[in-house]
Design brief:
Layout lengths: L1 H8 L11 H11 L14 H26 L6 H29 L3 H34 L7 H23 L22 H39 L4 H35 L6 H23 L3 H12 L4 H4 L9
């Protein structure tokens, strides 16, 4: 009885108690050998940390742009309204990434997942639509240069803002309203709980948006080249000066469109061909560059604008550098 109690205290199964004494002794000795447990998995996914950090940077950067436009009465032109819409959308996208990280590790539930993913979808959709609206506004400002600063332009701007935010909010509400894959995991896309069809709609919409922006920027480039040539003839510029000016304008357009495509195209194409069975690493690796677009947007569309630069200088140091006061708009400032 004593031996059975001692062996049973070692935690071995019942069939070992029925074996011979030699086997019991060896089992008892082996039970005293320390067991090496496997290393625990990381509590936090490093990719989630990177996305959360990116979201924090996006929020801070775009919050500066939003506050400058709100508190400066001189920044109420249609162009600044659209830049403010872009900054607000990117700000919400950054907050969505941070909130998604917090809820994923502190408040795990299907409801919070639907809400945070819906917020991210709506915010990034509004960001892309705002980029399209800015492109349309730039085209109109060049093509209808004489009548651009009319009340009609302001009305068109508010209509575009209403349409883009209404569409974006609708796309973000779809998972919350039931178009999700929580009840059928086989229909999940690379981003749970979005369905494969939902992700396909978003991807195809992006491709159409990119194609439309490309066409508009081609037309803008033609107008800029024509304007620069006319200015060169009127002011008797040398051919070299004309070439430098037009090259700067084309380079600016290429930078804007190239950055947009480089950030969003990988995730868009991956969402079309992949589903939930693909490794999550591929999803993170393609989604992260898309978030970088919201970091770059304020640099391209806001901080390069000399009116916003003057407002920022007034906030930071209370003065405006002479270089900003004397600066005039050039044909390449598109």
């Amino acid at each position: 009885m004593t031996e059975e109690v001692q062996v049973n205290a070692s935690g071995l199964p019942r069939d070992h108690l029925e074996a011979g004494s030699a086997e019991n002794v060896s089992a008892g000795l082996s039970s005293q050998t320390p067991v090496v447990e496997p290393a625990p998995e990381l509590a936090v996914n490093p990719w989630d940390i990177v996305l959360c950090t990116s979201g924090t940077l996006i929020s801070c950067e775009n919050a500066v742009v939003v506050l400058i436009i709100i508190h400066n009465p001189g920044l109420r032109a249609p162009m600044f309204l659209l830049i403010g819409s872009l900054a607000l959308a990117d700000l919400l996208a950054g907050l969505g990434l941070v909130v998604n990280f917090v809820f994923a590790y502190l408040l795990q539930s299907e409801a919070t997942k639907l809400v945070t993913v819906g917020l991210i979808v709506a915010s990034f959709s509004a960001s892309i639509c705002s980029l399209l609206a800015i492109t349309v506004d730039r085209y109109l400002s060049l093509y209808y240069a004489l009548t651009y600063n009319s009340e009609r332009t302001v009305t068109v701007t508010y209509v575009m803002l209403g349409l883009l935010w209404g569409t974006s909010i609708g796309l973000g509400m779809l998972p919350v309203l039931g178009w999700n894959c929580l009840q059928d995991e086989a229909t999940c896309s690379v981003v749970r709980p979005l369905t494969k069809n939902h992700a396909a709609v978003l991807s195809v919409s992006f491709l159409f948006t990119f194609a439309f922006m490309l066409q508009l920027y081609v037309q803008i480039c033609k107008i800029v080249l024509h304007h620069a040539h006319q200015i060169a003839l009127q002011r008797h510029f040398l051919a070299t000066s004309h070439y430098v000016t037009t090259r700067k304008g084309v380079s600016t357009l290429a930078l804007i469109l190239g950055t947009f495509a480089a950030c969003w195209m990988p995730f868009t194409l991956y969402s079309l061909i992949a589903d939930h069975t693909y490794p999550p690493t591929y999803t993170y690796a393609t989604l992260l560059p898309a978030t970088y677009n919201s970091i770059i947007n304020p640099v391209i569309y806001a901080f390069r604008n000399h009116e916003i630069q003057k407002a920022l200088c007034l906030v930071c140091c209370g003065c405006v550098p002479p270089s900003l006061v004397q600066r005039a708009s050039a044909p390449s400032d598109v």
